[in-house]
Amino acid sequence: MEIKNIIIHGLDKKQYSKDIIPIISNSTLDNKSEIVIDFCKELKSSFKNDVKVSSAVFDDTSQFKEDIEKYNNDDNSFLDFTKNSLVKMEKELKKKPTSSGGKFVFLELSDPNRMFFIFMIRDTKGEQIKYSEDKRSFELNEVEYADTNNLAMAVRINRRIFESDEEKNYLSFTYGSSKQNEVSDYFSDWIGAKDLLKSVDYARSLKTAINLIGDVTEGDYQGSASEKLQSVITAASSEGENKVNIYNLSEMLYGENKRNLLRETLEEASLNFTQTFILNSKSKNLFKTINVKSKDIKLNFPRSPVMPNTPSVTTRMDEFGFSLAVARLSCFSRLSRSLCLNTEVSLMASCFPSTIQAWLSSS
User: Fold this and answer.
1) Confidence tier at 260 by pLDDT (50, 70, 90)
2) Is residue 10 over pLDDT 80?
3) DSSP reduced 3-state for 2
4) Full-prediction pTM beyond 0.70?
5) How far apart are CA 212 and CA 207, in angstroms?
6) The CA-based dihedral angle spanning residues 260, 263, 266, 272, taken in that order and rounded to the nearest 10 degrees
7) How far apart are CA 119 and CA 175, in angstroms?
8) Degrees, nearest 5: CA angle 95-96-101
9) DSSP code of 223?
10) Taking the CA atoms of the chain, what radius of gyration do you get in angstroms?
11) Least confident of 192-196, 245-249, 328-332, 358-362
12) In DSSP terms, which residues pair with 345 in a beta bridge?
């Protein structure tokens, strides 16, 4: 790996604090140093995990796009370009009180794709990257190796594609293994990315696909769509690291001969999808369901319906010989230990005991 330029700047900001202290380097690191090269190799390897990489392009209004174009055209020096970029990141962080600062590694490679990287690192102990007051620049600790667990998030820019007429994504985003579970909005907003899909976007598409497939009423894989949604969380846990593989999930929900069902449904509905993605806490909420049970009657529906006023939810009650369909859920609120429902229901029944009618009316 041949390094053309590398510099590290910092933005010191505590979570929930409004105060941000910029820490600016006035010189680049030695691009021939073995310590620097090893450090960069470790960081660059963070893009090897496809599950954690999302691609995008610049938004038309991206200021970062303008800055890197100026740098590409030699209208700006590497040092000035990185300093200007840091000022804009500072503005993004101020919009997010819950965010934390970090150190920003700007890395330019000399390779056919003219790759440019920006890594945001949270070196909490301050042992790996230290600021030299004498040199007024960040330096790497010779003892410490690059611990990529400190990586919060990063972007890679393929400048060859960016400057060409190829209709390909030239931005690639990734995030660290333990401190972050997806690229934060302020980071992608700083770069000015559009069409950047996150795990929650893939999760929404998956949920829509499962609802489109609907209830399975025959065979060995019977179950309502709501039950299938709840099973997504179980499937992610069994994959390890809360990963969802749509092919394995399709086989689990619908059978071995239905391994491609989810993918085909996603494609037919023109929904965004990827083979594997992380089911983070925000995404899990999409698949959690509410269960209401009274004696032999059980209602099951999503907590956060895609269309809150028109969820399609059914519950089979074969022992009474009828099915109950919730046609409209006008509102619901969850209290600490109670559930308030205001629903309209349509009933289709061949046998409908009056006791059940009375129970439904009281609901």
Assistant:
1) very high
2) yes
3) coil
4) no
5) 9
6) 180
7) 9
8) 110
9) B
10) 26
11) 328-332
12) 326
Return the structure tokens found at 306. Answer: 């895609």
- Give the CA-trace dihedral at 95, 96, 102, 105, to 10 degrees: -60
Cα–Cα distance measured from residue 279 to residue 207, given in angstroms and rounded to the nearest whole number: 12
From the centroid of its chain, how far is CA 104? 21
What is the percent of the chain where pLDDT is above 90? 45
224: left (phi over 0), alpha (psi -120 to 50) or beta: beta
Owner of token pair 């963070």: 46
Least Cα distance to 286 among 211, 179, 180 occurs for 211
Tokens 């969820």: give the residue: 311
Decide which of 309 and 268 is more confident. Answer: 268
Q: How many other CB atoms are there within 10 angstroms of residue 110's CB atom?
A: 12
Contact in structure between 234 and 212 (CB atoms under 8 Å):
no
Alpha carbon of residue 115 to chain centroid = 24
Mean pLDDT value of segment 142-152: 62
Q: What is the separation, in whole angstroms, between the first and last Cα of the chain?
A: 67
Secondary structure letter of residue 307 according to DSSP: S
Strands 171-175 and 193-194: unpaired
Which helix (DSSP H) or strand (DSSP E) does residue 343 occupy? strand 339-349
